[in-house]
């Protein structure tokens, strides 16, 4: 099938570069846009997907990544989001192994490099979509639209909406999806090679390889678009249909049949009872996504919880935006179908397909999604937008040739704005503090934004400011139980116990299975000496979270306060069974047994604890007191306590006061904040002073 050079391509105000040079240029622009995020921290969802994900650690069996979701939870769990991305988790694990731990630089650099590679490959993909598939005499693909494909790839490389996918490490899932799609598309094209005599050659092998590379069944549709004029169509469609069905079935078997559980705050429109208003709000969400592609200035890490108020009436002025969106889409579609220019029909059709099809899984049509707007889902769809934008500029240059210089200036200005916006936005993604605070001006009605700002402030020790943001989060969303829980914790630490109890009680009344809030409520009630209520709260926490060692520890403290010594020991023992390195529970058992005169049992518990925590100074200190009372000075000193604080205690009890003083001083040099050491040292000095004054 003879293909000619795209007629508007020579009008594009860009130089015609050699293929390798064009790819290097696009890759360098991509690197320039996002390189300042290379030394960023783990932020937002990175904490759950990477920092707290046990599947990244070498001690976790590699097979777990095939049965767990993206966040490390088992796919069969009701709490799983069913986000099955084992290859992404595998790359995270590789980063972990290469860096010897959680070093964010390696994670960020790989994301940036992936984006640069994807941007460079976009030139080949755009060239085929615009100009068709053609080969030279050396069987190499000929780019019939070198300038248009280069311009579209530059727009893609520098589009600011990609910041979340590139600067946020969890965005690697979107990067890998795009990369596998490109490889699948380009490999599929390798199945066809029109020779010099015009004979069509079709390779089943390359189609099979393409199917193996295909990351999602929805992208298979894009591979068949434009293929209808080829020979062997039924054979290829059959192969692709079988491959697609096989992948869908495999994914269904792995994920299970149960859909993920989302709440109204995640996607309020999907919970609207009126089907008309639900459709209207869905379409308004589409218009917001379109606006982010057109004007990527208002970017936010989260668009839920009141950020986008629901449209509740047809008279709402915002309905104009969704009407405008559909007018534009219908206009483009009519041009794609009815234009007399075959090259225009091809470019518009495939540009619209590339824009719309990757977005379909996020459109709430087939299933409910867990977000209102998510910039990361626009990563691949933006390629379609960039293709349409480059075509539009080429069309303008053809139609208004005398304004070609003006178009050239506009293109250069737009690229500069894109690069500057990417640099600013990727800088905001470097730390949670800058990321969260940047959202306050974009989504001031978003309770989650205020919650995250407050949490970040609390983590940095600024509890006074954190309280203000937590209160605002609760005001904006009165049933925000996590904000209530965190606010209650801060008030508890500030000894404002009555308000803390009210907040935590409200949280558990709204969400009865909120185990952490039940435990915190029990702590507050214990401080208020409401012992029966506290015990009930602790047991509720354990009922909703079976393996909760911290709750058993706090329950043991409650029993100890009530002199229910046996119950306290049992609770602390449960804590150590569930979490063998629970230092506080071990230490409390030793101290309680010591105080009740059970020195032999205290010694056994202390020795058992030191086998698990051989460097725990607190446990050694408590055990030293027990051994001192048992007068086991020499044995305990040499076998268990190579550190100075316990040795000092032993010398102190043994009556070797000068040696005790020496060990206390050495201990304080090593650790001036060692618990109890300063008090014991001062006590010893007072005793030595008394002895000196009483000496003749």
From TrEMBL:
<feature type="transmembrane region" description="Helical">
    <location>
        <begin position="377"/>
        <end position="394"/>
    </location>
</feature>
<keyword id="KW-0472">Membrane</keyword>
<feature type="domain" description="DUF1736">
    <location>
        <begin position="258"/>
        <end position="330"/>
    </location>
</feature>
<comment type="pathway">
    <text>Protein modification; protein glycosylation.</text>
</comment>
<keyword id="KW-0808">Transferase</keyword>
<feature type="transmembrane region" description="Helical">
    <location>
        <begin position="350"/>
        <end position="371"/>
    </location>
</feature>
<feature type="repeat" description="TPR">
    <location>
        <begin position="549"/>
        <end position="582"/>
    </location>
</feature>
<feature type="transmembrane region" description="Helical">
    <location>
        <begin position="141"/>
        <end position="161"/>
    </location>
</feature>
<protein>
    <recommendedName>
        <fullName>dolichyl-phosphate-mannose--protein mannosyltransferase</fullName>
        <ecNumber>2.4.1.109</ecNumber>
    </recommendedName>
</protein>
<dbReference type="Pfam" id="PF08409">
    <property type="entry name" value="TMTC_DUF1736"/>
</dbReference>
<feature type="repeat" description="TPR">
    <location>
        <begin position="447"/>
        <end position="480"/>
    </location>
</feature>
<keyword id="KW-1133">Transmembrane helix</keyword>
<keyword id="KW-0256">Endoplasmic reticulum</keyword>
<feature type="transmembrane region" description="Helical">
    <location>
        <begin position="282"/>
        <end position="299"/>
    </location>
</feature>
<feature type="transmembrane region" description="Helical">
    <location>
        <begin position="204"/>
        <end position="225"/>
    </location>
</feature>
<dbReference type="GO" id="GO:0030968">
    <property type="term" value="P:endoplasmic reticulum unfolded protein response"/>
</dbReference>
<feature type="repeat" description="TPR">
    <location>
        <begin position="481"/>
        <end position="514"/>
    </location>
</feature>
<dbReference type="InterPro" id="IPR013618">
    <property type="entry name" value="TMTC_DUF1736"/>
</dbReference>
<dbReference type="GO" id="GO:0016020">
    <property type="term" value="C:membrane"/>
</dbReference>
<feature type="transmembrane region" description="Helical">
    <location>
        <begin position="112"/>
        <end position="134"/>
    </location>
</feature>
<feature type="transmembrane region" description="Helical">
    <location>
        <begin position="406"/>
        <end position="424"/>
    </location>
</feature>
<feature type="transmembrane region" description="Helical">
    <location>
        <begin position="173"/>
        <end position="192"/>
    </location>
</feature>
<dbReference type="InterPro" id="IPR052346">
    <property type="entry name" value="O-mannosyl-transferase_TMTC"/>
</dbReference>
<keyword id="KW-0802">TPR repeat</keyword>
<dbReference type="Pfam" id="PF13432">
    <property type="entry name" value="TPR_16"/>
</dbReference>
<keyword id="KW-0677">Repeat</keyword>
<feature type="transmembrane region" description="Helical">
    <location>
        <begin position="231"/>
        <end position="250"/>
    </location>
</feature>
<comment type="similarity">
    <text>Belongs to the TMTC family.</text>
</comment>
<dbReference type="InterPro" id="IPR019734">
    <property type="entry name" value="TPR_rpt"/>
</dbReference>
<dbReference type="InterPro" id="IPR011990">
    <property type="entry name" value="TPR-like_helical_dom_sf"/>
</dbReference>
<feature type="transmembrane region" description="Helical">
    <location>
        <begin position="319"/>
        <end position="338"/>
    </location>
</feature>
<dbReference type="GO" id="GO:0005783">
    <property type="term" value="C:endoplasmic reticulum"/>
</dbReference>
<keyword id="KW-0812">Transmembrane</keyword>
<dbReference type="GO" id="GO:0004169">
    <property type="term" value="F:dolichyl-phosphate-mannose-protein mannosyltransferase activity"/>
</dbReference>
<dbReference type="Pfam" id="PF13181">
    <property type="entry name" value="TPR_8"/>
</dbReference>
């Amino acid at each position: 099938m003879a293909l000619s050079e795209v007629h508007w391509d020579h009008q594009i105000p860009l130089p015609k570069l050699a293929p390798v040079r064009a790819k290097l240029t696009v890759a360098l622009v991509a690197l320039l846009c996002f390189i300042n995020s290379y030394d960023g921290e783990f932020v937002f969802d990175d904490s759950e997907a990477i920092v707290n994900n046990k599947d990244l650690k070498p001690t976790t069996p590699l097979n777990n990544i095939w049965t767990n979701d993206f966040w490390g939870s088992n796919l069969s769990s009701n709490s799983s989001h069913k986000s099955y991305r084992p290859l992404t988790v595998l790359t995270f694990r590789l980063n972990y192994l290469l860096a010897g731990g959680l070093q964010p630089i390696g994670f960020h650099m790989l994301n940036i490099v992936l984006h640069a590679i994807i941007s460079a490959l976009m030139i080949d993909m755009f060239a085929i979509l615009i100009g068709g598939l053609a080969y030279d005499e050396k069987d190499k693909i000929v780019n019939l639209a070198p300038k248009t494909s280069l311009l579209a790839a530059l727009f893609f490389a520098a589009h600011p909406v990609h910041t979340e996918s590139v600067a946020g490490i969890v965005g690697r899932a979107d990067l890998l999806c795009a990369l596998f799609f490109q490889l699948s598309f380009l490999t599929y094209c390798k199945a066809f090679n029109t020779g010099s005599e015009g004979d069509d050659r079709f390779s089943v092998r390359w189609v099979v390889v393409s199917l193996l590379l295909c990351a999602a069944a929805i992208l298979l549709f894009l591979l068949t678009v434009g293929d209808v004029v080829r020979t062997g169509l039924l054979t290829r469609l059959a192969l692709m249909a079988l491959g697609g069905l096989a992948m869908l079935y495999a994914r269904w078997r792995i994920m299970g049949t149960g859909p993920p559980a989302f709440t109204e705050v995640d996607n309020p429109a999907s919970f609207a009872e009126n089907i008309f208003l639900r459709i209207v709000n869905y379409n308004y969400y589409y218009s917001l996504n379109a606006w982010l592609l057109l004007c990527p200035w208002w970017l936010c890490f989260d668009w839920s919880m009141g950020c986008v108020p629901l449209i509740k009436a047809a008279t709402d002025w915002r309905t104009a935006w969704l009407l405008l969106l559909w007018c534009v889409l219908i206009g483009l579609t009519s041009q794609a179908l009815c234009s007399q220019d075959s090259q225009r029909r091809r470019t518009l059709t495939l540009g619209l397909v590339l824009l719309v099809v990757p977005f379909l899984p996020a459109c709430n049509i087939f299933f409910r999604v867990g977000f209102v707007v998510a910039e990361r889902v626009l990563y691949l769809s933006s390629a379609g937008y960039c293709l349409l934008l480059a075509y539009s500029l080429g069309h303008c240059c053809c139609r208004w040739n005398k304004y070609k210089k003006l178009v050239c200036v506009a293109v250069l200005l737009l690229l500069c704005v894109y690069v500057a916006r990417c640099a600013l936005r990727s800088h905001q993604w470097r730390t949670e503090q800058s990321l969260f605070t940047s959202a306050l001006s974009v989504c001031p009605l978003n309770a989650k934004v205020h919650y995250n700002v407050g949490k970040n402030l609390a983590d940095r020790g600024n509890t006074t400011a954190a309280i203000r943001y937590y209160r605002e989060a609760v005001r904006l969303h009165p049933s925000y139980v996590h904000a209530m829980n965190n606010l209650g914790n801060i008030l508890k630490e500030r000894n404002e116990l009555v308000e803390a109890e009210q907040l935590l009680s409200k949280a558990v009344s709204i969400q009865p299975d909120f185990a952490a809030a039940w435990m915190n409520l029990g702590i507050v009630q214990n401080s208020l000496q409401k012992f029966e209520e506290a015990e009930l709260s602790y047991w509720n926490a354990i009922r909703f979270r079976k393996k909760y060692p911290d709750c058993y520890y706090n329950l043991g403290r409650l029993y100890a306060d009530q002199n229910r010594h046996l119950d306290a020991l049992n609770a602390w023992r449960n804590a150590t069974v569930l979490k063998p390195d629970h230092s506080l529970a071990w230490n409390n058992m030793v101290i309680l047994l010591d105080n009740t005169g059970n020195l032999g049992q205290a010694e056994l518990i202390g020795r058992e604890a030191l086998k698990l925590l051989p460097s725990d100074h607190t446990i050694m200190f408590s055990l030293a007191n027990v051994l001192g009372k048992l007068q086991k000075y020499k044995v305990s000193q040499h076998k268990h306590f190579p550190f100075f604080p316990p040795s000092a205690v032993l010398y102190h009890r043994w009556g070797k006061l000068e040696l005790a003083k020496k060990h206390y001083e050495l201990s304080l040099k090593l650790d001036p904040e060692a618990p109890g050491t300063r008090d014991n040292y001062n006590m010893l000095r007072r005793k030595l002073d008394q002895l000196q004054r009483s000496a003749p």
